[in-house]
Design brief:
By secondary structure, the protein is mostly helical. The protein is built from 24 helices and no strands. Helix 8 runs parallel beside helix 16, helix 12 runs parallel beside helix 14 and helix 14 runs parallel beside helix 16. The longest helix is centred in the middle third of the chain and has 52 residues. The N terminus is likely disordered.
Length: 653
């Protein structure tokens, strides 16, 4: 077998084996490359080549394409933190987009930007639908509807900045790719020229290694040109090795160098196979495969099978762990799906529950808002059901909103009718507020005030305004009425002022100690009080205060109890006689005294009957003595009540 066959075997056959050990589905793992919620309004132009580059980075090993691995931004792209955009508010999403634009290279954030845009559009679309329904329910024409807010304006500007920056980046990158292609084609031509150079082999080999280094550093080229350029390069490298076999020492030295470097690659791959961070291990594995293929040539034939088996085994271990990782991730997505299905069912149950009060709807609104938040925080679901789950969620929330909007639409209708009713009452109040026919208008004004209370709520924007109109009209009328009545009864208010002064003097009065003089003084004050006369109906409470103060003053007198009782009773009779309803009150007082006389007589009779149970009534028995004392007390009390009755009868004569 020729050396050429050996080289072909080293660089071709084994690469095919690597391709077979790389799972096809690993090329574009759905978990990383898709967002959970798709915006139905998003168009194809919102995607860009950067996302394609990102996807191809995962399939580099399978596709045997090292272009993306040469792009230094590929590693940086994986270092950009991925967050749960689904749980963020629109304001948070705008702020996160702004942070990405400020702190990361534009070509490394396309995946995050597209996810953020999809989430923002979905949330704003939902808000837009709510605002549109409210607008139509308020009587607006759908063709006239327009809505935006500051958050939407900010997001649009940030996304516009992103599109401009990424467009500029790709324009420059396209230029660089074409330039790199020209450089690589020039390197191939120089390698071709080495076969016709007439100089010593050592110098030619050195030039060849320099050209290989230039090739490695030449940078990425257009994707559609890559395979052809690399195959051409590889072909002429093989031809150079065929040419090189004339100098076995240089060839063996190159084989040994390649062997040593590939052993290091294998050792690093075996370390990565033990790393628990499967994504990080997979990304570095791609770099190792690029080094194996792009930067290192073949090894001696006796080592080829051995080192490839070790490298292939480490590669398979990493791929198996990554597949297991995504299988676990899929399970977690299934659990998230269950949570979201439960949340959707709860929202549907709330929507189906019919209520007819503002407070009940407010409670339901809070419950649905909490469930919406829980839905957004539940995490991602499997890609195959993502759009269906999101659509079902939106439909359920929209169904709830329709019920809510219908209730408040009907409520607004009722409130508008209530508004018209209250405006009619305002009209009546304002038409009669200056009337002097108080006998007729006063009952009317009181009636419309009661009618106002019975009418339900009106639109909030009108509530304060119409209440002030109505209240001002009513107050205007009643203030006029009260002012006129006060003018007509000014003498009653003057009498009230005098009684207030007399009451204050009574409370401040100090007794002289001469009971007779003090009693006469109090009687004089009672007479003065009676002489002042009537006060306004709503001020008559002052009479009760005065006679209570009189009683308190009598209680301070050091007089025999029965006499004091009669003096206080006379004061009470003065108060009763001073009342408009004196006859009725005096009759009540007479009936009360007669009742008390009967009760006291009954007590005396009972005590006298008790004495019959004692054999010796004149004994010194303490019980007998207590009975006699009580009989004497009740007889004295009976005399007082009889005197009160006699005094009261004298007022009728």
């Amino acid at each position: 077998m020729s050396e050429n066959d050996n080289l072909q075997d080293a660089d071709g056959k084994k690469e095919v084996e690597l391709k077979e050990t790389t799972p096809q589905e690993e090329s574009t793992p759905q978990v990383e490359e898709t967002t959970e919620v798709k915006n139905e309004n998003e168009t194809a132009e919102d995607s860009n080549n950067e996302s394609e580059v990102d996807a191809d980075a995962h399939s580099e090993i399978e596709a045997s394409n090292a272009e993306d691995a040469e792009d230094e931004s590929n590693a940086e792209r994986h270092e950009v933190e991925e967050k749960d955009y689904h749980s963020m508010s629109m304001q948070d999403l705008a702020e996160e987009l702004n942070r990405l634009l400020k702190h990361h290279k534009i070509q490394t954030i396309s995946k995050q930007v597209n996810e953020i845009k999809a989430e923002f559009n979905a949330k704003f679309g939902e808000l837009l639908e709510e605002k549109k329904e409210e607008f139509i329910n308020d009587g607006g024409n759908e063709i006239d509807f327009y809505y935006t807010n500051d958050t939407k304006k900010l997001f649009n500007q940030l996304y516009k900045d992103y599109k401009q920056s990424i467009s500029a980046y790709y324009k420059e990158r396209e230029h660089n790719l074409r330039q790199n292609l020209e450089n690589r084609l020039a390197i191939i031509e120089e390698i071709k020229g080495l076969l016709s150079v007439e100089e010593n082999m050592g110098s030619t080999y050195k030039t060849f290694k320099e050209l290989q280094e230039k090739w490695r550093n030449a940078g990425p080229i257009p994707r559609d040109k890559y395979n052809n350029a690399w195959n051409t390069y590889h072909h002429h490298v093989e031809r150079f090795y065929d040419f090189l076999h004339l100098n076995n020492d240089l060839r063996d030295m190159d084989f040994k160098h390649n062997y040593d470097q590939k052993l290091k690659i294998i050792e690093r791959a075996e370390e990565l196979a033990k790393d628990d961070n499967v994504n990080r291990a997979f990304r570095e594995l791609q770099v190792l495969h690029k080094l194996w293929k792009e930067e290192l040539g073949p090894v001696a034939k006796e080592h080829r099978e051995e080192i490839w088996e070790r490298f292939s085994h480490a590669t398979k271990t990493i791929h198996d762990k990554r597949q297991a990782y995504y299988a676990d991730l899929d399970k977690s997505y299934e659990k998230n799906l269950e949570k979201k299905e439960e949340i959707i069912a709860k929202i549907q149950a709330i929507a189906d529950d019919k209520v007819n009060s503002h407070s009940a709807w407010q409670k339901k609104i809070k419950e649905v808002e909490a469930l919406r938040e829980a839905f957004f925080n539940a995490g991602k679901v499997p890609l195959k059901v993502n759009e269906a789950t999101w659509a079902k969620f939106k439909d359920t929330v929209r169904n709830f909103n329709r019920g809510k909007n219908k209730f408040y639409k009907d409520l607004k209708k009722d409130q508008y009718e209530n508004l018209q009713k209250k405006k009619e009452l305002i009209k009546i109040a304002e038409e009669n507020k200056d009337s002097d026919d108080f006998a007729v208008v006063t009952p009317l004004m009181k009636k419309i005030q009661n009618d106002w209370k019975k009418i339900g709520h009106v639109p909030r924007r009108d509530s304060d305004k119409i209440w002030k109109q109505f209240k001002n009209a009513c107050n205007h009328y009643f203030d006029r009425m009260h002012a006129q009545r006060k003018a007509e009864n000014q003498h009653l208010y003057d009498a009230f002022d005098k009684k207030v002064k007399l009451l204050e003097d009574l409370k401040a009065m100090e007794l002289s100690g001469d009971n007779k003089a003090d009693v006469e003084n109090l009687k004089t004050r009672i007479a003065e009080w009676k002489e002042i006369g009537y006060v306004p109906q709503n001020k008559r409470y002052i009479d009760g205060k005065f006679y209570k103060a009189i009683d308190d003053a009598f209680d301070k007198l050091k007089m025999e109890k029965s006499k004091l009782e009669m003096v206080k009773f006379e004061s009470k009779l003065e108060n009763l006689a001073n009342n408009d309803d004196d006859t009725r009150l005096l009759d009540n007082e007479q009936n009360f005294i007669r009742k008390k006389i009967g009760e006291v007589k009954s007590e005396i009779t009972q005590l006298e009957n008790n004495l019959q149970f004692f054999t010796n009534v004149d004994s010194d028995n303490p019980l007998v003595q207590d009975v006699h004392k009580n009989i004497a007390k009740y007889k004295k009390e009976l005399e007082t009540w009889k005197a009160k009755l006699s005094k009261l009868r004298g007022m009728y004569s």
